Amino acid sequence: MTLRDEKQHQTVDRRSFLSKSTGIVGGVTVIAGGKGHAAAESMGRSSRSNSERAHRGDALFRPAEWAKPYGTMYPRATRLNHDDSGRDTLLATFEHYESWGRPPEYDDKPYFPIYRSVNGGQTWSKFSELRDTQSEWGLRYQPNLFELPTDVGPWDAGTVLAGVNSIPNDLSETSLELYASEDHGKTWEYVSTIVTGGEARPAEDDPVWEPEFAISTDGDLVCYYSVERDGYWTQRLAHKASSNGGLTWESETIDVALEDRRPGMPVVQKLPNGSYMMACEIVVPGGEVHVRTSPDGLDWGDPSDPGTLVETNDGRQLWNGPSITWTPRGGPDGTVLVAAKTLRYGDGSQAPGSGRTLLTTTDLSGKGEWTPVSGPLWYDDEIDVEEQYPDAESAAGVGWTTDLVVSENGKQLLSITSTYASEVDLCEIRYAKRPLPLKDV
Predict the structure, then answer these.
(1) Euclidean distance between CA atoms 29 and 45, whole angstroms
(2) Which CATH class, in words, describes the domain spanning 3-435?
(3) Cα 150 to Cα 162: distance, rounded to the nearest angstrom
(4) What is the rounded CA–CA span in Å between residue 155 and residue 18?
(5) Residue 396 — φ and ψ, nearest 5°?
(6) Which pLDDT does position 32 carry in this prediction?
(7) In sequence order, which residues have a C-beta less than 8 Å from that of residue 90 and are 6 or more positions away?
(8) Residues 299-324 as b or e (16 or more Cβ within 10 Å = b)
(9) Which of 77, 176, 209, 353 could form a disulfide with 194 if both were Cys (CB 3.0 to 4.6 A apart)?
């Protein structure tokens, strides 16, 4: 945690803690593909090409200047495959600091705004608000959206589930809770509390973080999450399953538990061969992204195995805040695509292509070659922002999760993330949708 963060927020939240732990060094962003650290110096920032400007995308939401500490971050998006409108409908949400950093004349509880697109992510508009109707603490961190692909428990296929972290004003408790919408995201109802934890600060009182959903091969709803056990370095990845659509939950199962290494931010993608792939960050103390697979979404193997490092042949690694998806293009079994907050070398220095590169593999085990491709949305990552704006208050929030949504035909990719807006010295949510640089096979 920096002195700037202490003045700004007065609490050690997980973002400033992890930002401090990464140990990054300088560099600049260039287009993916250069060799070695020196390649990062070749382009500079004096001018941007037309291609680069086109990849900057559009703003979905820019916060007011007083929405401290970060403005907005942690976007999540999902396609509604069971929407009755006949349109290509997507929903998105994000951490909304306007609703919990308001001036004193406002009296409101934090909530998550729901935005909707009916044209595949080309344009967006405010659709609804997801509010805490259970504890009335407010919803502060790590929203997640998941449309049920089949009937589950009392819910019909197409019901939209939301995982939220309900936290009171003093950050003294954390509670991962399930909400459901039976009208495609317009209205929401509380369903259940999945797991509770302590103070919402790393290395404090066993907090819980980052809910993620999947349906196991036996049809159970599964919620994956991060949970600290007796200190920062004892965080684990765990899951709970529910046979009745989240009305009640079974006991906790530990999926990843590493000695002196901190796994976090699990995201899960079901693959066409029936297996599941999980991506997570592992703070060592940086934030390397690793993947592992499961045959059923429940058994992830030996918890002490960190999985496979997502790394190119020339040593570039994805770090922090992973996202994962799959497209039928690019190989006989399609292609797995992984995004993250930044692209680094193993020593923590910035790698060429950071803020604009996805890593892909056609090996559904995750153990094969990882290849860089240009992402649809380009942004100046945390290192670039701090170099351009040394006094930037919210640089650590840049790229804090970059969600990916593949188009219905598999040929285009939507990317949505938090980027720095110098006009307000905060993060805003930007998005871009472009053709995937992969061929049909």
Answers:
(1) 9
(2) mainly beta
(3) 16
(4) 37
(5) -65, -20
(6) 31
(7) 77, 78, 79, 80, 116, 117, 120, 121, 405, 414
(8) ebeebeebbbebbbeeebbbbbbbbb
(9) 176
Bridge partners of 96? 72
- Residues in contact with 107: Cβ distance below 8 Å, sequence separation at least 6, in sequence order: none
How many C-beta atoms surround the C-beta of residue 236 within 10 A? 19
Assigned token pair, 379: 């942004």
Task: Enter the pTM of the model.
Answer: 0.89
CA dist 121 and 151 (Å) reads 26
Q: What's the rounded Cα separation, in Å, for the pair 393 and 37? A: 27
Residue carrying structure tokens 């496979």? 308
Q: Read off the tokens for 198.
A: 């302590």
**pLDDT reported for residue 199:** 92
Q: Which amino acid is at 108?
A: D
> What does the pLDDT read at residue 9?
34
Peptide bond just before 69 cis, omega within 30 deg: yes
Residue with tokens 């692209």: 343
Residue 104, pLDDT score? 57
DSSP state letters, 6-43? HHHHSS--HHHHHHHHT---------TT--TGGGGGSS
Query: Residue 360 corresponds to which tokens in the numbers above?
Result: 């892909």
Q: Which amino acid is at 111?
A: Y
List of the chain residues with pLDDT < 50: 1-47
Grouping H, G, I as helix, E, B as strand and the rest as coil, residue 338 is strand
Please provide residue 385's backbone torsions phi and psi, each rounded to the nearest 5 degrees: -60, -45
11 contact partners, CB below 8 Å, separation of at least 6? 171, 201
| Residue 409: how many other CB atoms lie within 10 Å | 10
For residues 90 and 78, give the distance between their C-alpha atoms in angstroms, rounded to a whole number: 6
**Strand stretches in 83-124, DSSP E:** 90-96, 112-117
d(CA 128, CA 107): 19
